[in-house]
């Protein structure tokens, strides 16, 4: 019978126990011992759940207090000078992740960014030419002992050296590859320590090998893995989120005792490997989708795996395609899903049960010839976005005067990105309503009061274009998921986004349609309270798609098209209700980019079409805004231009307008609002500081096409912070106007 194992289990806990423990500790409500106790409890529970499903060995090291990349960075001892402290102290790691250092509250955290094409964020290692590696696996060794004491066979899991190095940021511009040999040596010592602590297998995660990796990086991979060949442990090299592309033969000949391949993203590659695997080394077949929530077609899988299972015996391991970090923990407790959906779903616990069932079928040689799981039969190219509905009536230069006429705004108008502080009171109101302690009418009254206050505050601040404040939204994607047909939301389907933060991605399970208005009544109320334009505020089709679990039986492009149609109807109704400006946020457009460059043009084509389908139906005098908040635009500026939004607001404060330069150099033709207020920090920027940023912007962009706004939404800030900050922002814009 093939062995089943798991690359990693969600660490957050089915009821987000880790989140509660962390936030309690950070707030000083829990002491370090209690925090440790709760972490140990979660690990124990998760090992038991996995063992019960037949998983053996169980992963160790997939649990993390904040981030598994940061854990490896700590074991390697690579900590920026500003944090001086024992790298293995938990508090040092928290400082690196969240900013501040022992005794100093104002130390900048390490940067954080998205883990490959997922919505998980890791803490970026900071590397310099002078960096030296230590290698102390003590935290992992301790967990190894815990697992053994519980009667499990543990398999330590670490981010592999190549991936760690690839993700590290050389802060002095030095060449990371110069560290390759020293890093290999450090990993060898880590493995040595794990071997001495009784580990037989160690899993090294190398998703970087599934990206476009330059030739010299492959050479480094070969040197590094050669250096790890002789240690006391057997290395299982795990490649997921794709395959090695043209370098697949090179990957398969790396000198490791076992190789894991992603049989969901790279089905053909796994099939080929299964056919020619000689059985001297372990092949781990990642056949259960670790990135989505659908049940697998076990008949089809048993059919695909049967011959190899018979031939390879226990040299064949079965696993999820990637660590289960990206799916919710357990379906148990999801009692309010739409009729018939639950039997189609598998969260982490159910996925492991599927593995067990698959292994049993293979063992019993129940090998039906059937195939044809829920795979798409149409291709992205076949999805039709009707061209005549993707174009505004006139081009931007002809629309702009009409909008100016309609809006009558000063030059460099001031606005915000949409959300205003989600106060404890707003959250309590929503909780009460959901729990039935507050009826619909009372809830609506409360939200309308919030909107009233938001409008009054903004008028008093002197902002030119107002927002209703998004008080009614728990989350910018889930809110829409709850109001569209064909999309389900879960009660507790939490997935870690970063640290203690989790999201509950909706599940797109059927044809999407819009049963009724989503945001229109809130907008109408807000606009009724003021003469100034209030922005209609929507989440874009690509972002809803990207932050949901989606169907696999149709191309993503088709799901995007259906979402865009629904949003287009909402846009039309907002316009009819008097919205002169409608903002369609697409903060996830860039992260949807496929990992392989070759697949990007196709994605960008349908992503742009989806945005245009959602937005292009309005009159030329209606202004379409979009908002994106990330720091790398370079490679998608063409696509962003093609969105043809009248105004785009971007994050720019932290990069001190470097981003804006990129737009200017590209000749971005429409209006732009570079963020001049970094909302990620509680700091209140001075007027002078924002004015300087605006002046910098005015040097590369004509004033007629410039806006003044913060970097992103203000929902995580307090009124005490944003009142003075926005007052300074308005003052800065006025000074700029007076000067030019
Ligand atoms: N309109 C949203 C807000 O202001 C945009 C959030 C985002 O860009 N992630 O919160
Ligand atoms: Zn944003």
UniProtKB/TrEMBL annotation:
Keywords: Amino-acid biosynthesis, Metal-binding, Methionine biosynthesis, Methyltransferase, Repeat, Transferase, Zinc. Residues 5-306 form the Cobalamin-independent methionine synthase MetE N-terminal domain. It comes from the Bacteria. Zn(2+) 1 binds at residues 627, 629, 651, 712. The active site is at residue 680. Zn(2+) binds at residues 627, 629, 651, 712. Pathway: Amino-acid biosynthesis; L-methionine biosynthesis via de novo pathway; L-methionine from L-homocysteine (MetE route): step 1/1. L-homocysteine binds at residues 417-419, 470, 585. This is 5-methyltetrahydropteroyltriglutamate--homocysteine methyltransferase. It comes from Sediminicurvatus halobius. The lineage of its organism: Bacteria, Pseudomonadati, Pseudomonadota, Gammaproteobacteria, Chromatiales. The gene is metE.
């Amino acid at each position: 019978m093939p062995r089943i194992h798991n690359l990693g289990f969600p660490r957050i806990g089915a009821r987000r126990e880790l989140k509660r423990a962390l936030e309690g500790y950070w707030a000083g409500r829990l002491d370090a011992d209690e925090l440790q106790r709760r972490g140990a409890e979660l690990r124990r529970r998760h090992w038991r759940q996995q063992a019960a499903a037949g998983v053996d060995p169980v992963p160790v090291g997939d649990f993390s207090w904040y981030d598994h990349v940061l854990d490896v960075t700590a074991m390697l001892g690579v900590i920026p000078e500003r944090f001086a402290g024992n790298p293995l102290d938990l508090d040092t790691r928290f400082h690196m992740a969240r900013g501040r250092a022992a005794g100093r509250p104002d130390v900048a955290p390490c940067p954080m960014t998205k883990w490959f094409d997922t919505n998980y964020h890791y803490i970026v290692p900071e590397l310099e030419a002078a960096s030296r590696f230590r290698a102390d696996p003590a935290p992992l060794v301790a967990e190894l002992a815990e697992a053994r004491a519980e009667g499990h066979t543990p398999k330590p899991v670490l981010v592999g050296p190549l991936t760690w190095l690839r993700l590290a940021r050389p802060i002095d511009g030095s060449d990371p590859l110069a560290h390759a040999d020293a890093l290999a040596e450090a990993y060898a010592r880590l493995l040595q320590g794990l071997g001495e602590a009784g580990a037989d297998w160690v899993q090294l995660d190398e998703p970087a090998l599934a990206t476009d990796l330059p030739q010299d990086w492959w050479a480094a991979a070969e040197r590094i893995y050669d250096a790890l060949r002789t240690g006391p442990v057997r290395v299982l090299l795990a490649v997921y989120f794709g395959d090695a592309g043209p370098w697949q033969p090179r990957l398969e000949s790396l000198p490791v005792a076992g190789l894991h391949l992603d049989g969901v993203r790279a089905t053909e590659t796994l099939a080929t490997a299964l056919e020619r695997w000689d059985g001297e080394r372990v092949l781990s077949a990642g056949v259960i989708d670790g990135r989505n929530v659908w049940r697998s077609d076990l008949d089809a899988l048993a059919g695909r795996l049967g011959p190899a299972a018979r031939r390879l015996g226990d040299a064949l391991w079965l696993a999820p395609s990637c660590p289960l970090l990206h799916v919710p923990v357990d379906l148990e407790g999801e009692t309010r899903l739409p009729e018939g959906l639950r039997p189609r779903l598998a969260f982490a616990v159910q996925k492991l049960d599927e593995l067990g069932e698959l292994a049993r079928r293979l063992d019993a040689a129940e090998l039906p010839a059937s195939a044809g799981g829920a795979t798409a039969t149409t291709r992205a190219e076949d999805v039709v976005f009707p061209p005549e509905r993707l174009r505004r009536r006139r081009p931007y230069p002809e629309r702009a005067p009409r909008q100016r006429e309609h809006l009558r705004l000063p030059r460099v108008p001031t606005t915000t990105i949409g959300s205003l502080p989600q106060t404890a009171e707003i959250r309590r109101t929503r909780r009460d309503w959901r729990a039935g302690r507050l009826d619909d009418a009372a809830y609506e009254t409360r939200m309308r009061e919030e909107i009233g206050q938001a409008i009054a505050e903004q008028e008093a601040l002197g902002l030119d274009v107002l927002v209703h404040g998004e008080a009614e939204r728990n989350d910018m994607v889930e809110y829409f998921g709850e109001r569209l047909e064909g999309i389900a939301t879960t009660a507790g389907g939490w997935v870690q986004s970063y640290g203690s933060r989790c999201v509950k991605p909706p599940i797109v399970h059927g044809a999407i349609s819009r049963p009724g208005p989503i945001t229109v009544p809130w907008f109408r109320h807000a606009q009724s309270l003021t003469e100034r334009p209030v922005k209609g505020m929507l989440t874009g089709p690509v972002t809803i798609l990207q932050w949901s679990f989606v169907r696999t039986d149709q191309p993503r492009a088709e799901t995007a098209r259906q979402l865009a149609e629904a949003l287009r109807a909402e846009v039309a109704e907002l316009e009819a209700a008097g919205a002169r400006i409608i903002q369609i946020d697409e903060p996830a457009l860039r992260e949807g980019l496929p990992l392989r460059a070759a697949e990007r043009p196709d994605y960008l084509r349908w992503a742009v079409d989806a945005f245009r389908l959602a937005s292009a139906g309005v009159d030329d005098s209606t202004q379409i805004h979009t908002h994106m908040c990330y720091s790398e635009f370079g490679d998608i500026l063409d696509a962003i231009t093609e969105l043809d939004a009248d105004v785009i607001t971007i994050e720019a404060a932290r990069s001190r307008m470097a981003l804006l330069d990129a737009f200017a150099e590209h000749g971005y033709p429409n209006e732009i609002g570079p963020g001049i207020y970094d909302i990620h920090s509680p700091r209140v920027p001075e007027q002078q500081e924002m004015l300087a940023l605006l002046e910098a912007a005015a040097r590369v962009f004509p004033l007629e096409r410039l806006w003044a706004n913060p970097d992103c939404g203000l929902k995580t800030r307090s009124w005490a912070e944003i009142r003075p900050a926005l007052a300074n922002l308005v003052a800065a814009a006025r000074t700029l106007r007076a000067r030019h």
